[in-house]
TrEMBL record:
Transmembrane segments: none annotated. The keyword Phosphoprotein does not apply. Residues 1-30, 306-332 are annotated as: Disordered. Residues 190-296 form the Cyclin C-terminal domain. Keywords: Cell cycle, Cell division, Cyclin. It comes from Colletotrichum simmondsii. GO terms for biological process: cell cycle G1/S phase transition; cell division; regulation of cell cycle. Residues 95-181, 193-273 form the Cyclin-like domain. This is Cyclin domain-containing protein. Residues 1-14, 317-328 have a biased composition (Polar residues). One of its GO terms (molecular function) is cyclin-dependent protein serine/threonine kinase regulator activity. Belongs to the cyclin family.
Length: 406
């Protein structure tokens, strides 16, 4: 009975209504509403005009990009003539640049521009091995200043810390200016990332395909075979290979020439041993975990190859030592007169000078030479790689013959 009386006392419908005394939002006036509608209409018109202008000037833009692609192409044959820089040093520097690029959260195209500046400089100037990392840092600074936001550009002391204090702060600035002067301040280079985005937007590829293509393109940075490959060819080949790896349908994007087919096949031959640092980068969910998918694909192809043939291939008759220096730079200056070099010295001055006497030449030990790939053993990666190449051969042949028949 008491409970019933209490209910009667609190029968007011507003008794349990919570009132936070929220201020009422001012109503939008007629003039403000008209301004908002006009602004939205202007944005729609501007977007449409941009699309029309893009379609109108796209041909001229692509023509200019093709021209700059040729103008800013490094020459691997000239890098071969370096006296101290050898190709087995390249993976160590690329690993360093990839980790520095990720640490500073720079744009994807910054990495490709960095490597392009590095290779173009090495095509034109003599570089000592103790300055190789310094040139890479200078190229990273230039590329970041060219395309990234100001707050993302690395500071010299940060790069110096990543180099373990190997260089003086002034050496970074001096090398940066020398790289710019050597390249005649021509920095604009259409990177492979630029062409990849164009193709992805046109063909409506999935994000996963774009990430896989980027992974393949960064794998290519480690190898001499792709130093003088045009970014447009690299983008088209990497996307076609990425679609094949992920099981996506092939896209008929026109006829493939011999260079593109060779690039596609050569790319497929370098997928079995990516860098550990690079694989760790592309194993994250941010990049769709494409490194794990590529490793799974390669393992699956190797298992298929082993199942199809119960007899392992016979070991090669040639000795592995015959190819032990396949990536070694020919030492051009045997018996050359001391102090005479081609062009002029790469600053900072050689460690023999008094200005940089603190740089100890013995502090840069040369890594021991070894074969690029280990001596094949029965049922090992050599057989798997051979079968993977056979796996891609029909895919390349299909590109060559299918488009000619069309």
């Amino acid at each position: 009975m008491a409970y019933y009386q209490q209910q009667q006392q609190h029968s007011d419908p507003t008794f349990f209504t919570e009132d936070h005394d929220e201020p009422q939002r001012p109503r939008m006036g007629t003039r403000d509403a008209a301004k908002m509608i006009a602004r939205q209409r202007q944005e729609i018109i501007a977007s449409e005009l941009s699309r029309i202008a893009g379609d109108e000037y796209l041909e001229d833009i692509m023509k200019h990009m093709r021209h700059m692609e040729d103008e800013t192409m490094p020459d691997a044959n000239l890098i071969d003539m370096q006296r101290e820089i050898q190709w087995y040093m390249r993976p160590y520097l690329i690993d360093f640049l990839i980790e520095a690029h990720a640490a500073f959260a720079l744009l994807p195209e910054t990495l490709f521009l960095t490597v392009n500046l590095l290779d173009r400089y090495c095509s034109k100037r003599v570089v000592y091995k103790q300055h190789y990392q310094l040139v890479g840092c200078a190229a990273l600074l230039i590329a970041a200043k060219y395309g990234d936001k100001k707050d993302r550009v690395p500071q010299i002391h940060e790069l110096n810390n990543m180099c373990c204090g190997l260089y003086d702060a002034g050496m970074f600035t001096q090398m940066e200016m020398h790289v710019l002067n050597t390249l005649e301040w021509t920095i604009g280079h259409p990177t492979v990332d630029f062409f990849t985005q164009l193709i992805v937007a046109e063909e409506h590829d999935k994000v996963e395909v774009e990430h896989m293509a980027a992974y393949i393109c960064e794998i290519a940075l480690y190898h001499r075979d792709f130093v003088s490959t045009k970014p447009s060819i690299m983008a088209r080949s990497s996307l076609a290979l990425a679609r094949a790896i992920l099981g996506e349908p092939e896209i008929n994007d026109g006829e493939w020439d011999h260079v593109e087919n060779v690039t596609l096949l050569t790319l497929s031959q370098h997928l079995h041993s990516p860098s550990v640092a690079l694989a760790r980068k592309y194993s994250s969910s941010h990049f769709s975990g494409v490194a794990k998918k590529l490793a799974s694909f390669m393992a699956h192809q190797a298992s298929i190859a082993r199942a199809q043939s119960g007899v392992p291939p016979s070991p090669p008759s040639e000795s592995a030592s015959k190819h032990s220096n396949i990536y070694s730079t020919p030492h051009k200056g045997h018996g050359a007169v001391a102090g005479v070099v081609e062009g002029y010295m790469t600053p900072p001055i050689t460690p023999d000078g008094a200005a940089y006497g603190t740089v100890n030449k013995d502090a840069y030990p040369m890594p021991p030479r070894c074969p690029v790939t280990p001596t094949p053993q029965p049922n090992t990666a050599a057989y798997a790689q051979q079968q993977v190449q056979q796996q891609y051969a029909p895919f390349v042949h299909q590109h060559t013959t299918g488009h000619h028949m069309a």
